[in-house]
Amino acid sequence: GRLWAQTICLAAEGALVLVFANTGTLGAAIAVMVFFSLFVQAAEGTSYGIVPYIDPPSTGSIAGIVGAGGNTGAVCFGLGFRQLEYKAAFMIMGSCIMASSALSLVIFIKGHAGLICGKDEVEPPKEQTLAVPTPDTEKADEVNAEE
Fold first, then answer.
1. What is the distance between the alpha carbons of residues 61 and 67, in angstroms, rounded to a whole number?
2. Spatial CA neighbour of 93 closest among 112, 79, 106, 109
3. Which residues touch 12 (CB under 8 Å, ≥6 apart)?
4. Whole-model pTM?
5. Counting Cβ atoms within 10 Å, is residue 139 exposed (0-12), middle (13-18) or buried (19+)?
6. Cβ-count burial of 84 within 10 angstroms (0-12 exposed, 13-18 middle, 19+ buried)?
7. In terms of CB atoms within 10 Å, which of 58, 85, 96, 137 comes out highest?
8. What is the DSSP letter of 57?
9. Helices in 55-106 by DSSP H: which ranges?
10. pLDDT, tens digit, for every residue of 85-115?
11. Is residue 133 within a helix (H) or strand (E), and if so which, with residue range?
């Protein structure tokens, strides 16, 4: 489900950038921008929702790399807007976002199904026993006596 959410949010985000590049009125541009912004936030959330599954012990490092990728994209598109006409820059931006949504097809997470192949590995339930702690009165008395 997470990969589908990622793909759908990125595709909608890219499509809305392309629509925004072709809007003719201020009202339409504002309406498209509001929905674009919603999908941007959702796509960011889905990106960080995938992070813990990549390599659980390295979650912090991977989250940093994901954040750095966002900053890199911002710098690249900022340069694009300085060098190109706005419409062309928005078209390139939307196309890149749409292409990145297609790249979600090749994300494979160990133990989970991808979008186009694989299946979830279901772990068999482990036998669990309920352990009820019993107070160790001698140890508790020693700890309390030290205080």
1. 10
2. 79
3. 39
4. 0.72
5. exposed
6. middle
7. 96
8. G
9. 59-83, 86-103
10. 989 999 999 999 999 999 888 887 777 777 7
11. none
* CA-based nearest residue to 43, from 92, 15, 8, 82: 8
Amino acid identity of 29? A
What are the structure tokens assigned to 18, written together? 């392309």
Residues 100, 69: Cα–Cα separation, whole Å = 12
Other CB atoms within 10 A of residue 143 CB: 10
Q: Which of 74, 71, 52 is nearest to 63 (CA)?
A: 52
Q: Residue 52 CA to chain centroid, in angstroms?
A: 10
CA distance readout (Å), 50 to 4, 11, 103, 108, 114: 11, 17, 14, 11, 12
Mean pLDDT of the chain: 84
Long-range interactions of 86-95: CB distance < 8 A, separation 24+: 86/21, 87/21, 87/22, 90/17, 90/18, 90/20, 90/21, 91/18, 91/21, 93/17, 94/14, 94/15, 94/16, 94/17, 94/18, 94/20, 94/21, 95/14, 95/18
